[in-house]
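Reviewer 2 asked us to include a model.

Predict the structure of this chain.
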Amino acid sequence: MGGFAGGDEGGYWDIDILPTSMDQQNDNQSENFSIKKSDIEIGDSIYSIKAHARVKSLSGWIRVEDLYDTITFVPDECKTFTIEGCDNIPLESNTIYKAFLALYDFTNDSDILDFFYTHKVVVTKRIPPSAGPGGSASDAAAFIRLVKEVCNLILSTDELAKIGSSITPDIPFFIYN
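Predicted model (structure tokens):
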């Protein structure tokens, strides 16, 4: 596991392993700038969201629909903020943890703290670590978007992007989709 500590520098994509849907542009451009509810799944106190990768194309960065990590909030009694699936990354270096701190600092909403005393974060990695497609930034952005929904935070997409940009400049790309 990895890809959380050092940013998304380095690596490359072998064109033969890229998902075929990468070539297809989103038909509805306005969807690129809003939270897609279809990425969020809610059931039995378990909440999850897909954290999509990105690749560079001739027209700029595009989101890869078929390559994503999954961020899940699973019920569990926790004494502190808990993340599973990022074993080699110290908590203080983890972009998801940094997103948690930034969200709480921005909102000062105790519902965020209360929620993570009763839920842990589980990361299921599918994006190759340090490959350059935005794994850590995508995961942090997905975390921010899911916390907004689960904790009913009254924050605009621009505010979410501002919070994300305080962590790394790549997060707003994923906030806006």
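Confidence is low (pLDDT under 50) at residues 1-35. DSSP finds five helices and five strands in the chain. We have added this to the supplementary material.
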